[in-house]
Design goal:
Residues 8-50 form the DAHP synthetase I/KDSA domain. Pathway: Metabolic intermediate biosynthesis; chorismate biosynthesis; chorismate from D-erythrose 4-phosphate and phosphoenolpyruvate: step 1/7. The protein has 1 helix and 2 strands. By secondary structure, the protein is mainly alpha-helical. The two termini are 13 Å apart.
């Protein structure tokens, strides 16, 4: 993507406060901030992924401006 590839137009990141997932068990309290559906990455990993993606988008735009793509 950083080289100017424009085929990637969106991403879906499974993210929550706490990583992983948990099952709903009757009588057992849920862990606050952890998914009950899909496995998720935690908040810190989410920030890192979004920062990396933002950098790649900025680079793709820079390449597009300088190469006329």
């Amino acid at each position: 993507m950083e080289a100017g590839d424009a085929r990637l137009v969106g991403v879906m990141v499974e993210s929550h406060l706490l990583g992983g997932r948990q099952d709903m068990v009757p009588g057992k309290p849920l862990v606050y901030g952890q998914s009950i559906t899909d496995v998720c990455i935690d908040w810190d990993a989410s920030v890192a992924v979004l920062e990396r993606l933002a950098h790649a988008v900025r680079e793709r735009r820079r390449v597009a401006l300088t190469s006329g793509k």
